[in-house]
Batch of 4 targets.
Target 1
Amino acid sequence: MRVLIIDDHAILRRGLRALLSDAFAGAEFGETSNAEQALEQLGKKEGDVALLDITLPGKGGLDLLKELKAARPRLPVLVLSVHLEDQFAVRALKVGAEGYMTKESAPEELVKAIHKILDGGRYVSPTLAEKLALSVGKDFTRTPHETLSDREYEVMCRIASGKTVTEIARELSLSVKTISSHRARILKKLGVRNSAEITQYAIRNQLVI
C-alpha cells in the first residue's frame, strides 16, 4: 500500500508515518507540504490513499482535493484537519473526500478510518453523521455563508477566530491585499459591515465555537 501524506508540518507528517507504519506493515509513503508537490508525486506514482490537510500554503486543501479527484477519481482521500467538523467537513465531502477527521482524533480512530475508506466506504464521526442525517431534505443553499468560495470560507473562519488580515496572509502564504479582497467579498456576501459582525455571524450560525 502507498500512502500520500499532504501536510505542511514536517513533524506531523513524521508522526503520521510512524503511526501508519505500525498499523500497515510494508506500506510505502510519500510526503508533500503543498498542492504542487502532491500533484507532481501523483503524476509519477499512483497512490492507494491520501491524507490531506485543509490548510496548505498557497493553493488551499479543498482546491487541491478537487484537482486530486479530477486527476485520480478512484483515489480515496481522508481529510485530516485542525478545523472543527462544523467548519469544513460538509464542504470536503461534497467535493469528493471519502472521510473527514480532526487532528485531535485518537490514533486508533485514524487507522479505522483508513481501513474503511480503503474498503470503499466513507468515514465521518458519529456526531457529524447525526448532523448529516438531520440535514437530509433541508435546503441550506440560501444561507449567505454557502455562497462563499472555499477560500473565502476559510478566511471567514479565521477572521471569526480572531485573526487579523496580516496574520491570515502570513498563515496562508498570500498577500495582505489578496486577503483584504477576500474579506471585502465576505462582508458583501454575508451582508455585514466589519470583522466583529463576521464573528457574530459565524457564532450565530455555529461555524465556530
Note: The radius of gyration is 17 Å.
Target 2
Amino acid sequence: MPNSSEVAIIGAGPYGLSIAAHLRTKDVEHRIFGEPMQFWLGHMPRGMLLKSEGFASTLYDPKADFTLERYCQENNIDYADLGIPVRVEDFSSYGLAFQQRFVPNLENKKVTLLERSGGEFTLRLSNGEKIAARNVVIATGLSHFEHIPSELASLPDNLLSHSSAHVHLHQFKGRDVTVIGAGASATELATLLQEEGAKVRMVARRPSIEIHSQSPLPRSLYQAIRRPMSPIGAGCKARFFTDFPQIFHRLAKPVQHKLVKGFLGPSGGWFLRGRFDRVPVLAGYQIKEAQASGGQVVLRLKSQNGDEHRIETEHVIAATGYRADVRRMPFLGAGIASQLKLSNDVPALSTHFETSVPGLFFVGASAVESFGPLLRFACGAKFAANRLSNHLARASRSAGRTLAAARGIAPVHGLQ
C-alpha cells in the first residue's frame, strides 16, 4: 500500500462503505480504515429488530444492484419492503457481504490520530503506520457519541453501562436491572432483557411510553396520498427530509435545529406490541440521585407531581441515546478541532459535506444539523455517497490537471 492517498475514509459502516464503493467506480484513489459494520456488530444486542423498514435498510453501490432484498433472496432470509422487521444480525451480515463485494481494499486498522499541516492530512494508524491524504472523510457514525445523564455519571463502571455496551444479554439472567430511557433502544433493550430472564424495569422522564402501531398493508391510495412513504417514515415532513436535503441545507440555522429536534420523538417499534407490555415502567419520573451502596445502585426518583420513589437495583443501563459532539472523537487532533466551525457541537458543512477545514468532510450523525434527519439513518448514505463522491471525483480530476500542467504534460483526450 502507498503511504499517501487522494482520499482517506475513516469508518466502515453503511456510510463509509457506500462512499468507498462509489469512489472505486469513479477510479478515485482512496484508502478506507475501520472494522466493517463495527457499530452494528459490536454495539447492538442480538435479537434486536431495526425500526427501519426493509426497503430503507440497505447500503448503496453505484448501480443499486446489491440491496438488502437481493441479499435476503440469495440467503433464503424472509424479507419484505414493508411489514417484516429486519434483524440486526441479518443487516450486519449483509453489510459484511457488501464490503467483500464492493470494498475489498478495506483496511481493518484503527485511526489513532488525524492531523493537518502544509495543506494535507496525516493519519496515524494503530499499527504505527503514517499516511498522508489530500482529503479525509469521517464516517464513524454514532461511535464516541454515547450519552449518559449527569445524574448517573458518578456511578462505577461495574454498576452502570450504556446500552451500546451490550451485544449479549445472557449475563443479566436472574439479575435486577433498571433501564433508563423512553426511546427505541430503551424499549427494545428492556423487552429483550425481560425475555432473557432478567428482573427488569424501565424508568423514563416522559409521562407515557409510545409504541408505534403497525400500518395496515397493503396501503390504500388515500393513505399513500395523505401520508406518503419515505425511507425514514410516513408523512409529508418525512418525505421533505428524504427528498430535499439540499433545501434543508439552505434553511436558517434556528429553523434547521427546530426541525431536527422536533422530528421522530422517542418511541418503540410496532413489533414490540404484546412483548413490551410485560415490562414494568415508572413513567414521568426523573432521577434525583444515584448512589452506589453495598454493590448495588440506589436510585431516588421524583415524579412531575412531586411523588418520590426509591429503587435498589444491581445494574443500571442508560439507554439514553447519543449526542453528537465531534470534540469527543479521540483521534481528532487538537489543531483540527480548534479550526472547525461548529454549530451545536458538530461542524457546519458545505453543500458537499466539507467543513471549515479544507479537505475535511463529515457524514452521518455529524451531518444531521446541516442536511436534516435523513442523515441519522443508514438510508442517508445514498445521498451522501452520491454527492460526496461526485465532488471528490471532480476535485481529483482538477488536481490531476494542475499537476500535469506543472510538469508540462499535455492532458489525455477525454480526461480533461
Note: The radius of gyration is 23 Å.
Target 3
Amino acid sequence: MGSTRTIHFAGAEGDPPGDLVMRVCERGQGFVRFETVSHKSKLTQWIRWDSSEIRWFSVDATHTQVVWRIRFERQLDPVWYFTPWERAAVRDAASYLIAAIAAPESVKQK
C-alpha cells in the first residue's frame, strides 16, 4: 500500500515526454487498484486518468488471465466523436501494459 508506479510517455510529433504517477490504494489476492497521483504528459489534453485496476487469476497450470480496467474522464468534445477514439486508445494502452509486464521481451523499445 502506498507504493508508486510511474508510466513514462515518450512524447511524439514534437510533444514533450511526461509521466503518469500512480499509487497503490487497495490490494488483495489477485487484485490491485491504483489512484492517480500526478499526470504530466500531453495525454492530459485528451483524457484525465483517474484510476487503474488490475485483476489476475490462474486459467490453468501455465496460463493466467489479466484484466486491466482504466477509469478516465474524456476531455474532448463532441462526445459522439471522441468517446469511441478515447476508449480505443485506453484499451490499447491497457493491452500494452499487460504485455510489457507479463512478457517484457515481447515489447520492443524504440
Note: The mean pLDDT is 84.
Target 4
Amino acid sequence: MISIDWTILLQFVNFIVLMVVLNAILYRPLRNMLKQRKETIDGSHARAHELESQIDEKMARYEDKLQEAKLKGNQEKNKLRQAAASEEATLLGEAREEANQRLQTVKSQVAGEADTAGKKLKADAESLANSIATKILGRAL
C-alpha cells in the first residue's frame, strides 16, 4: 500500500527542481528556437508575398508597355501603308498622264500622216484617173 510520508515531499521538491533545470536547459532554448523559426518562416512568407506583388506590378507594367508598343507599331504600319498608297496613286496618276500624252502625240502623228497620205493618194488618184481616161479615150484630157 501507498503511504504518504516525507518522501512524497522530497519527490515533489525533486520534481520542481527537475522542472526548473529542464526549463532552463531544454524547454526555454527549444521555445526560443521554435519562436525564431516561426519568425523566420513568417518573414520569408512576407518577403515572398512582397516579391510576388512586385513581380505582378512589373508584369503589369511590361504588358502595358508591350501593348503600347504594339499599338504604336500598328499606327506606324498604317501610316506607312497610307504613305505607300498615296505614293502609288501619285505614280499611277503620273504614268497615266504620261501615257495619255504619248497617246495624244501618236494620234496626232497618225492623223497627220493619214492626212498627208490621203492628199498624196488623192493626187495620185487624179493623175492615175487622167492616165486611165487618156488610154481609154485615146486622147488627152
Note: The CA atoms of residues 83 and 109 lie 39 Å apart.
